[in-house]
C-alpha cells in the first residue's frame, strides 16, 4: 500500500495558491465562496427551461390542468436562487470598491425582477426560433421535434436568458450560462451578442458568435460559421481594448452556409446569402450572393439574384 | 427581500402558451404528457449499451460468469421502457387521426420486437466498427481502448440503434437518441443515414451526415467532414419538399479527410480519397484522389493511384 | 403486452461475444472487470480539479481557513482511487505476459506517487494558462471568469493531468481522461502532446492536437485548428507504424487562427502567425506571417512583420 | 475468487416460487407487477405531508407568497401517482373476479377524488392534534416544535390519510402507509382505527391501536399503551373471523398512561383515567380513575375524582 | 383520467392555514423559512458522527494517515451549517421580540463555538459508554461491534451532542436531533437529561428518559425502562408549569432492568438495582435491590446485598 | 462570521483517538478500513430480499418472464459484495493472530458459498412465516399484504439471513444485519437465536430475543415479549462468561402474548400459552396456560385446556 506524501503536497499547493493570490493582489481572508456557483446556476437554468416550456421541458408527469401551479412554484424557487447568485456576482464586481449590503440587495432585486418580467418576451422569441427551425429544415417533421432535439434551439434558450443577464450587468452569470450551452451543443454564442427573432442554427457544432455581433430577424446559419473579430486593437500600454464593436452586423433574412467565416465590424446586407466556407472581411450589399463556385478561388459576389447555394 | 410578481408572470406565460397552441391548432385538453421523454430514452440507451457490451460498458462489478443474467434482465427492462415510449410516439403521430389503442399496441410491439431481434446484428456491425478504428488509427493501442475512448465508436453505437428506430417508423425517438450522441461527441449523424460495416470516424467533432446519405463498407472519415444537401427544392407553395434523396452516396473503401464538404446527391466511387478541406458538389469516379495540393486553388483530381493524402 | 424473445436474444448476443473473444484470442475465464472504469476516473478527475483550485472548483461551502483540510482529504481519497485504477491498467497491459502482483503494486505506487508529486507543478502551469487566456481575450473580464467559463482552460486542466498519466506509462487512463475533456469542450488533445506554459485555446470547438505534437510557451490557438498527421507510414506487412513523430512542432509565441490545418512533422518557427483557414504542410520560419489575404488562393507568407491577421 | 453455483441457486429459487404460487393457486402469467409499490406510496405520502404543511414540512426554500403554487403542483402530481396505485390495488382486489378496466378506472377516480376532497378536513384535524400535544406536554415549547419533533404527530399525519384510504376501500395502500409510520415512530395504529380530533400520543414507542378501536375527542395516551383484542373468535371451520368489532371504545377526554393494556370491546367512559401498566379487560364508567397504587395488586378503581396519577 | 378539483382544494387548504396562523397570532408576511431544517441538521449530525469516529463512522475509503484532514474538513463544513441553523433558531426564539442581526450572530457564534470546543470531551464520554457496553453485555465480542451495532451507543452519540445544544439554549435543534435518534433506535432521551459517563442502554426499544432526569456514572438500563414524570403541576390558570424538576435522579452504579418504570423526582441511591417491570414512585436507598420476586405482588426491597435479579 | 479553532479541535480529537487506541492496544498503522461496512451490507441485504421475493420486493418494473435473469444477476453481485465483507471480517477476527491471505480467501469463499446454497431453504422457511402470519392475524387479508406490510416478516427475512452468517462464523456481519431490522421494526432478535419455521411476531415493537434462545415450529409472539437472560455468570476474574446457554427454549406451537417476559434457560413446553404481561423465570409444562387473570397477582397456571387469553 502506498503512503503518499500528502502533507508535503498539501503544503506545496498551499504555497502556490498564496503566490497566485499575491500576484493577483488578493488577501487571504477567512470566509467562504464569494463567487457564483456553476451548480446553482445550472439548477436555475433547468428550472427556467421547464417554466418556459412546461409540457415539453418540464417534469414528465406534469399535466395540462396544473401547468400554472408548476410554473409558479418553479419560477419562485428559481428566481430566488438566481437572486442569491446575483448578490454574489455584484459583491464580486465590487470586491475592490465599497458597496453597502443595501446597495447590493437593491441592485440584485432590480436586476432579477427585470429578468423575471422579461420571461414572457423570451418565450415569444423562442417560439419564433422554433418555427424558423421547423420551416428551415426539410428533415424537421414537427415543431415538437424541433424543441426537443435541435441543439440550435437549446442554445437559443440559454442565449436569450444569458443575454438578459448580460444586458442587466451580470456578465459572469451570463457567461457561465452560455458555456453550459456551448458544452452541450458545440455552439459558442457570447452572451453579449444581440439576436433578433426567428433565428435558426442548423447542426451547430463549431458555430462561434462574438460579443458585439448584431443579428437581425429571420437569419439562418449552419454549422461551423464564425462571426468573429478581425484584430484586437491595443491601447497605449499595449493592453487589449475591451468592449469595442468588433464583430459583424447581420441584417434581416441573411443565410450563412456551413463553415463560412465573417470577421470584423462588417455588415451583411438584408437578404444576402453567404456560401459555405467563404472567408469574408468586407461588407456585402443587401440581396447579394457570395459563393466560391466549384473552385476555391476568390469569392464571387453576385447581387442580381438570391437563389440558394 | 424581493417579491417577484410571480402571479403576473405566470399569467403572461400562460397566455403565450395559449396563443402558441392556437397557432398550432392544438386544443388544451386535460391530461399528461403525450410525448416521448428524453430522460426515459436516455436510460434505455444506457441499458442497451450495457447489454451490447456487458464487460466494457455494463456495471463495473459485473463478472463474466453471470453476463447472461445481466444481459437478460437489462434487456427486459429496457425493452419494456422503450415499448412505453414507442406507444407515446405512435399516439403522437396520430394525434390528428383516429387510431385505436389496440392498433397502437400492435404497432408498438411489432416495432420494438423488431428492434430487439436486430440487436445481435447491431453488435456484429459495431464489432466491425471497433476493428476498423483500431486498424485505422496509429494511436490506437487496443480494441478495448477504442471501445471505451473513441467518440466515433460511441456515436455509432447510438446511430446503429437510432437507425433501427428510424427505419421502423419511430423517427422522433430516433432523433432524440441521435442528439444524445451529438451532444456527447460533436458528431451529428441523422438517424436516417444508411451506414455499412467497418465505419470509422476519427476525432469526429463537427462531422455532419445527412438524412439520406448512403455509406458503404470500410469507409473512413475525419473531423469536420460534412455529407450535406446542396439545395432544398420547394414545392408549388414554396414549402420545402421533405424526404427527397439529397445527400451523398459514399461507396466502399472511401476515405474523406478532415474538413471536406461533400454536398448534394453525388456519388464518391469505390476506393476514392477526398483530401482535407476539399469542397465537392460533383461525382468522383472510383479510385480517384481529390486533393487541393498545397494551394487553395481548384481541387485536383487524380485517378491513377489512391495513395493517402 | 409484448413478450420479447429475451432468451433467444441473450443467446445470440452471447454467441457473438464468444466469436469476438475468439477472434481476439481471449479466453472467457470467470472473474470481474480487468479494465479501468470510466466512472471511477471521472470521480478522480473531479477531485483533482477541486484539490488544485479549492475555492473555485471545490465544494461551494468551502472556506479559506480550512482549504488545506479539504485538499488533504480529497487528495488522499482521489490518489488511492487512482492507484486502484492504475493497478487495473498495469495488469491489463500485461494480460499476455507474466507479472507478479508485487510488480504490479510497485509500478502502480511509483507511478501515482510521481503523479502526486507533480501536482504543484501542474497547478503552476495552469496558473500560467489562466493568465494567458485573460491577457489574450478582449472579452475576458477577470481571471476567475476565465477559470470558470473557458473551455480551453478546462481542457488544459484535464490535459496536464492526462499527460502525466501518459508519460508515466498509463496511456489508457490518460486517454479516458482526455476524452472526458473532449466530450465537454469539443477540444481533442491527445494526452501524448507536449504543451508548454501559458497556452491559450479560444472557443476551442473542433481543435485537434495529435499525439506527438510539441508546443512551446505562450502559444495561442483558436477554434477548429488541427495539428495533425499528414500520412501514416506502414510497415512491411502493411500495418500502421505506431508511435513515430508525425505531428507539428510549434515554437514559442506562435498564434494560429481559427480553422487552420497544420499537418505533418513541420516546424512553425518562434513567433510566427498562421492565418485563419490556412492549410499548411511545410515549415514556417520564425517571425513569419502566413495568410490567405482576402481570396482563397495560395497562402501568402510574409516574414518581415508579425501584425495580427 | 469464488465461483458460486448461481445457475443452480437460481433454479432452486425458481422452483420454490413455483411451488408457492401453486399452493396459492396462482398461475405464472407473463406481465409486470400487479401490486402497489411501497416506494411510489412513500413519495405520495411525503408530497401530501408537504402539501398539508407547506412551510414546515415542504421544501426548505419555499416562500410564503408562493405556497399555493407549490401546494397545487405537489397535489396534482401526488394525486395522480396515488391514482395509479389505486388502480393497481383495485385490480389486485379483483384478481379472482371479472372487472373491466372502465370499472377499475371509475372506482379509482371516485376514491382518490374523495380522498383529495378530504384533505382540508384532515389538515383541520391535524391542527387540533398539534394543539393537543402542545397543551399536554410540559416539555413542549412551541407548536412548531410539536409539528416537527413529535413522533405522535407524525404518526397521526400518516394515520389520518391512511384511514381515508381504508374507509374508501383501499386497505392495502392504507396498511402500507401505516407501516411507514410504524417503522419511523414505533407507533402501530391500524388504519381501520377511528380517532377523533385533538388526539395526543406522547413518546409513543410501543403503542398499538387495533383495527376496530374507536377513540373520541381530546384523548391522551402514552408510550407502550395497547388497545388490543382479547381473543379471536373462529368460525365453524376453525378459521379466524375477520372484521368483527374486537378493540376498545375510548370516549372523550380519557387519559391512558404508559404501558396500560386494554383488551377487547370494552368501553372507557368519558373522562376516565387509566394508570400506568394497568391491565384491563372490562368497561370503566365515565369519570373513574383506575390505578395500581404503589403495589402490583388488583387495579383500584376510584370514580369520585379524576386527579392525575 | 381524473380531473381533480385542485383549485378548490388549494383554496380550502389556504384558508385553513390562514385560520391557523390567525389563531396562532401570526401574520403572513412574504419570505422564506424562518425555522431550522431537519434535513440540514441530519447532515450535520452525520458529519459530526464521522468527525468523532473517523475510521468507524466516517467514509469507507478513509485511511489512517489522513484522518486529520478528513476531520478538519468535515468539522469546518458541519459547524458552519450548524451555525446557519443556530441563527434560524435564535431568530425564531425572538420572533415576538426585537433582536438585531448583530446580536443573533454573536449568540450563534458563541453557542456553536462552545459546542465545537466540547467535541473532544464528548468523544471521551462516548469512549466510556462504548467500554461500558462492551463490559456489560455477554454477547458483545469487541468494542468495534459495540460502536457499530448497539442502538444504545448510537442514541448516546446523538444525545451527548443534543444535550450540548440544549444547555447552550438551542432547545429546538436539540430536540430535532434527539428525535432522529428516537426514530432510528426506539430510545427516547429528552435532550435536557443529564447523563454521566459509562452509560449503557441494552436493546433499548421503548426506553424513555425525561427532560429533568439526572443520571450518574456507570449506570446500566435495559429496554422499555421509563424515567418519567408522575404528575404535571399546573399554575393558577390551569396551564402546565414548564421546566420544574420532575424526573428521577439515578446515582452512580445503578442497574435498572427491562420494563421498570420510575416516576417523579425520586432518587435511586448509589449502586441500587431495580428489577424488571418494577413500578416505583418512591426513593430507594443506596445499595438496595428492588424486585418483584416470582409473583406480581408488592415490590420487595432488599438492602443487604446487591446480587443481580 | 465565526472562525472556529478547527486546528485545535482536530488536534484534541486526534489525541483522544490515540489514547483510545493505546488503551485498546492498537497501533496506528497506515492503511484503510479493516472493518466491514454497514452501507455495503445494507446493499447486500436489499439485493437478497429482492432475489428471494423478486415480484414483491424486487424492482417495480420487473416482469414474471424475466425473473430468473434478475435473480441471477442480483445474486451474483450481492454475493461478491458479501464475499468482500466476509474477507474484512475474517481479517479483523485475526487481527491479533497470523493468517495468510490464502486462508482468508478460503474461509470467505467457503462461508459465502454455504450461505448462497442455503438461500432456497431460507425462502422456504420465510414462506412458512408468511403463511403463519396470514393465518394468525384476523386483520390480515392476503399473503401479499403480509409480505409487504408486516414488520415481523421483515424482521424474519433479516434474521434468517443473519442467522446463517452467525452460524458460519461471521458474527459481526450477522449483528449489523440484525440491527438494520431492529432499527426498521423495533424487533431485536440476536442473530444467534435458533428459530423454527412458521414463526409469527405480531406488531413486534419492543420484542427482544436473546442469543441462545431456541424456538420451535409454529410459535406465535406479540409485541414487547422478551426472551431474555436472568443473570450473567462471571468467571473467576469477575468478567462475564460469554456464550453460555442463558435464554429460554420455546417448544412447538407455543403462543406468548404481549409484554410477557421469560427469563433464563427455562423451557416452555409444547403448545403452552403465556398470557400478556406475565413474568416467568421457571419451566412451563407442555399444554399449560399461564395467565394473570384480571388482577396482577401470582400468575395462574392452568394445564387442563389451552384456550386463548
The share of residues in helices of chain A is: 40-55%
Query: What is the annotated CATH architecture of the largest domain in chain A?
Result: Orthogonal Bundle
Supply the number of structural domains of chain A.
2
CATH class of the largest domain in chain A: Mainly Alpha
Rg over alpha carbons of chain A: 23 Å
Number of helices of chain A: 9
Query: At the fourth CATH level, what is the homologous superfamily of the largest domain in chain A?
Result: serine acetyltransferase, domain 1
CATH topology of the largest domain in chain A: serine acetyltransferase, domain 1
Termini separation of chain A (Å)? Answer: 65 Å
Which strand order do you get reading across the main beta sheet of chain A?
A: 3-6-9-12-14-15
Q: How would you describe the shape of chain A? A: globular
- SSE pattern of chain A, N- to C-terminal: HHHHHHHHHEEEEEEEEEEEEEEE
TL;DR of this structure?
6 copies of one chain form a homohexamer. Chain A contains 9 helices and 15 strands.
Description:
- The structure is a homohexamer of 309-residue chains.
- With 309 residues, chain A is α/β, with parallel strands linked by helices.
- Chain A has two domains: 35-186, serine acetyltransferase, domain 1, CATH 1.10.3130.10; 206-309, UDP N-Acetylglucosamine Acyltransferase, domain 1 (3 Solenoid), CATH 2.160.10.10.
- Helices cover 45% and strands 11% of the residues of chain A.
- The first copy, chain A, is built from nine helices and 15 strands.
- Chain A has helices at 6-23, 38-52, 54-57, 67-93, 101-117, 119-136, 143-149, 151-167, 171-185; strands at 188-189, 194-195, 200-201, 208-209, 214-215, 220-221, 226-228, 249-250, 255-256, 261-263, 267-268, 273-274, 279-280, 289-291, 300-302.
- In chain A, the strands form three sheets. A six-stranded mixed beta sheet of chain A has the order 3-6-9-12-14-15.
- In chain A, a hairpin with an 8-residue loop joins strand 14 (289-291) and strand 15 (300-302).
- In chain A, helix 6 (119-136) packs antiparallel against helix 8.
- The N and C termini of chain A lie far apart (65 Å).
- Residues 293-297 and 305-309 of chain A have low confidence and may be disordered.
- At the A-C interface, helix 1, helix 2 and helix 9 of A face helix 3, helix 4, helix 5 and helix 6 of C.
Amino acid at each position: 500500500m502506498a503512503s503518499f506524501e500528502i502533507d508535503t503536497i498539501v503544503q506545496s499547493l498551499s504555497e502556490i495558491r498564496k503566490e497566485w493570490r499575491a500576484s493577483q493582489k488578493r488577501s487571504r481572508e477567512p470566509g467562504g465562496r464569494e463567487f457564483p456557483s456553476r451548480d446553482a446556476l445550472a439548477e436555475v437554468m433547468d428550472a427556467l427551461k421547464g417554466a418556459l416550456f412546461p409540457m415539453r421541458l418540464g417534469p414528465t408527469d406534469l399535466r395540462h390542468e396544473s401547468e400554472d401551479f408548476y410554473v409558479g412554484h418553479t419560477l419562485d424557487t428559481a428566481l430566488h436562487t438566481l437572486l442569491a447568485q446575483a448578490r454574489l456576482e455584484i459583491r464580486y464586481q465590487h470586491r475592490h470598491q465599497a458597496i453597502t449590503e443595501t446597495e447590493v440587495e437593491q441592485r440584485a432585486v432590480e436586476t432579477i425582477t427585470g429578468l423575471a418580467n422579461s420571461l414572457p418576451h423570451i418565450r415569444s422569441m423562442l417560439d419564433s426560433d422554433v418555427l424558423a427551425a421547423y420551416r428551415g429544415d426539410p428533415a424537421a417533421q414537427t415543431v415538437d421535434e424541433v424543441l426537443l432535439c435541435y441543439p440550435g434551439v437549446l442554445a437559443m434558450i440559454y442565449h436569450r436568458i444569458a443575454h438578459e443577464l448580460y444586458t442587466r450587468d451580470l456578465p459572469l452569470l451570463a457567461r457561465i450560462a452560455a458555456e453550459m450551452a456551448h458544452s452541450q451543443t458545440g455552439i459558442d454564442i457570447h452572451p453579449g451578442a444581440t439576436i433578433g427573432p426567428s433565428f435558426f442554427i442548423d447542426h451547430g457544432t463549431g458555430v462561434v458568435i462574438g460579443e458585439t455581433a448584431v443579428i437581425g430577424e429571420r437569419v439562418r446559419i449552419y454549422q461551423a460559421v464564425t462571426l468573429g473579430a478581425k484584430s484586437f486593437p491595443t491601447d497605449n500600454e499595449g493592453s487589449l481594448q475591451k468592449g469595442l464593436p468588433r464583430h459583424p452586423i447581420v441584417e434581416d433574412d441573411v443565410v450563412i452556409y456551413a463553415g463560412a467565416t465573417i470577421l470584423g465590424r462588417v455588415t451583411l446586407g438584408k437578404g444576402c446569402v453567404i456560401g459555405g466556407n467563404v472567408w469574408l472581411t468586407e461588407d456585402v450589399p443587401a440581396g447579394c450572393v457570395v459563393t466560391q463556385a466549384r473552385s476555391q478561388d476568390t469569392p464571387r459576389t453576385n447581387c442580381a439574384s438570391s437563389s440558394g447555394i
